[in-house]
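Lecture notes, continued. The same structure-token format from the folding unit now serves as the input rather than the output. Read the line below as a description of shape only.
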């Protein structure tokens, strides 16, 4: 009888160990969620997003980047954006770098719950309208600028499933950086009383004729900096921030796409940052030399440093709700006075 009891106890212990191991393995796994009604990619296909769950109560909301368009030629001629969410957008695919490398023990988001918001609408996560153009020779082409509607679908799901996070870090790269600044105020309103910080990666160097682009998306604004200024003014106790490299080649390509003959985005970038710093005391920026685009998604995130301040540590402190200084590369132009 005692032997039977011992065997039962041993079996129960083994079962509990197996269950514990299974639960541990399940932590940090990704799940793809199909959004509901009103969310759609530019080609009419279903919109979906990815969620990573952990035992932590901290939350990262990350907006994906990738191209843009605003008229028939740019949307259907030499298309630079992805019109659908596919398996290749999966943030858990092998080889991901930066903050998506969960094999790196220095990753400050190792234990974070993450909502990854894909991008398939060519509108920087800002639009909520459908446009149909007549095509020469007959026929029509329809573009669904539904980035804002898609983001709201992902965020509404987030609000339901992460009701009381300990802290929230809102970020994104390139087009997603602008999307993070645009949607951050709504996230801050929803999580009132919770520390919420925004940081845009690699989108500070856009300037010029943005009115026609933003109006094509149905957005009433004249610059991307307006989203930082409006958000910072409405949330003076919250932190808004940007991370850029001074010779970002992708941002330069975007400027040329708008008709500019610039050879570098450095002066435009510094001018934009100075405009925001002058008007928003709760804005911070890190501007590094080089041409890396989307620092947070590459291994440069762990190695890039200016005067002893690593990008990694600067971002990690932001995410923790700590104040950080403004960090600038040496050799900036004489007209530029770095904010303190």
């Amino acid at each position: 009888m005692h032997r039977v009891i011992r065997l039962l106890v041993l079996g129960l212990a083994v079962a509990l160990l197996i269950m514990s191991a299974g639960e541990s393995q399940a932590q940090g796994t990704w799940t793809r969620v199909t959004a509901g009604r009103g969310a759609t990619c530019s080609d009419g296909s279903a919109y979906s997003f990815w969620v990573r769950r952990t035992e932590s109560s901290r939350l990262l909301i990350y907006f994906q980047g990738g191209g843009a368009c605003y008229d028939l030629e740019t949307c259907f001629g030499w298309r630079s954006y992805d019109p659908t969410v596919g398996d290749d957008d999966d943030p858990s695919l092998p080889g991901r770098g930066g903050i998506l490398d969960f094999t790196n023990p220095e990753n400050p988001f190792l234990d974070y719950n993450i909502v990854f918001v894909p991008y398939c609408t060519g509108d920087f996560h800002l639009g909520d309208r459908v446009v149909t153009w007549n095509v020469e020779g007959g026929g029509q082409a329809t573009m669904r600028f539904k980035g804002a509607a898609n983001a709201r679908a992902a965020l509404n799901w987030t609000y339901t499933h992460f009701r009381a996070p300990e802290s929230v870090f809102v970020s994104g790269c390139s087009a997603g950086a602008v999307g993070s600044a645009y949607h951050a105020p709504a996230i801050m309103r929803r999580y009132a009383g919770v520390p919420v910080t925004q940081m845009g990666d690699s989108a500070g160097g856009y300037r010029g004729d943005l009115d026609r682009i933003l109006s094509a998306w149905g957005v009433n604004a004249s610059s991307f900096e307006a989203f930082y200024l409006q958000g910072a003014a409405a949330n003076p106790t919250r932190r808004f921030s940007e991370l850029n490299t001074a010779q970002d080649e992708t941002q330069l390509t975007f400027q040329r796409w708008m008709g500019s003959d610039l050879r570098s985005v450095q002066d435009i970038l510094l001018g934009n940052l100075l405009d925001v710093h002058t008007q928003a005391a709760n804005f911070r920026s890190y501007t590094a030399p080089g041409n890396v685009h989307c620092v947070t998604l590459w291994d440069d995130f762990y190695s890039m440093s200016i005067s002893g301040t690593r990008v990694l540590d600067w971002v990690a402190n932001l995410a923790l709700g700590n104040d950080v200084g403004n960090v600038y590369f040496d050799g900036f132009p004489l007209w530029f006075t770095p904010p303190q």
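Point for the exam: Residues 27-328 form a domain with the Rossmann fold fold (CATH 3.40.50.1820).
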